[in-house]
Amino acid sequence: MDGMNTATTTAHNNARTADAQTTAAIAVDELVKRYGEHIALDYLTMQVRRGEIYGLLGPNGSGKTTAINCILGLLSYDSGDIRIFGEHMSPTNYALKRRIGVVPQDIAVFNELTVEENITYFCSLYVPERARRAQLVNEAIDFVGLGDYRTYRPRKLSGGLLRRLNIACGIVHQPELIFFDEPTVAVDPQSRNSILEGIQRLNAQGSTVIYTSHYMEEVEQICDRIQIIDHGRQIALGTADELKRMIDVGERISVEAPTLGSDAKLREHVLDSVRALPAVIDVDFADDMLEITCTQGAHNLIDVLQTLRTLDVPLGHVSSHTPTLNDVFLALTGTELRD
């Protein structure tokens, strides 16, 4: 009887895994990649649902780029399984690759070609029919707002417009799955907003998006779920709110208290008193500012201010902040994403 139950459970788990691989946009199962003695990917698993914007984050050397290259069939791996839309990815699965678009961090266009010629060239790699290709090129140009720059060569474009061209070349064939690798690096705020809005429109039109960025506010703004990897392994996965609940930090309170800078004895007494509050994790004083880290609680700010008033500490500007994704990243990896 126990054997039958074990067999039934195993069959159920196998069926569930197979169903997830079939329905997911990307299903990566226990992926291992070694470079000699170095393990770049350590049984990495990833399930990207169709129609979501999936943030993939990791510090330098975490294995993020290696994972993407394996998924795209650009890099071999030692063991594991990769499926895209239920199909095995391989270097020669060209039919599957036509359903994928890649917008790399480095600008990948030809300086000798105009905006329209660049987009047409990249479209021709996927779409042989000339009439269909012309339609797609026009739609891509309109989508990224480069209609007034069709005849411009890349060297004449601003950084933001060049990024838009890079995007147009990667999405012109209207792929079902799109990888965006740092698409807003070194662009002005207006161009950044335009790019992010464009990615959200692509997603609304049905594309599944894999998004990597060093700008946490972007990830939080547009991603449905976020996976953090380090040393080739997943260390966290969830929505932005779910990730924030994984760490102890629930609130950061900043209090301007310039008098503490000139009175060392009072400063130490204040730091000790605030540190003794039940919800306080850490207290620091620098540049006339008290920086107080607390666990989650409804009355943290009130408790801190009451303590300071009891000690007759004159207060200036006061602010309270909930944890950010960067706080999560720092707590889980020991480094900031931009390091």
CATH overall fold name of the largest domain:
Rossmann fold
CATH class descriptor name of the largest domain: Alpha Beta
Strand content: 15-25%
H-E string: HEEEHEEHEHHHEHEHEEHEHEEHEH
Q: Count the strands?
A: 14
Describe this structure in words.
There is one protein chain. By secondary structure, this protein is of the alpha/beta class. It is elongated, with a radius of gyration of 25 Å. 34% of the residues are buried. β1 and β2 (38-48) form a beta hairpin. It contains twelve helices and 14 strands. α6 (159-171) runs parallel beside α7 (189-204). It folds into two domains: 2-99 and 176-244, Rossmann fold, CATH 3.40.50; 251-322, 2-Layer Sandwich (Alpha-Beta Plaits), CATH 3.30.70.100. The longest helix is centred in the N-terminal third of the chain and has 22 residues, at 2-23. The strands form three sheets. It has a six-stranded mixed β-sheet.
Summarize the structure.
With 339 residues, the chain is of the alpha/beta class. It is built from 12 helices and 14 strands.
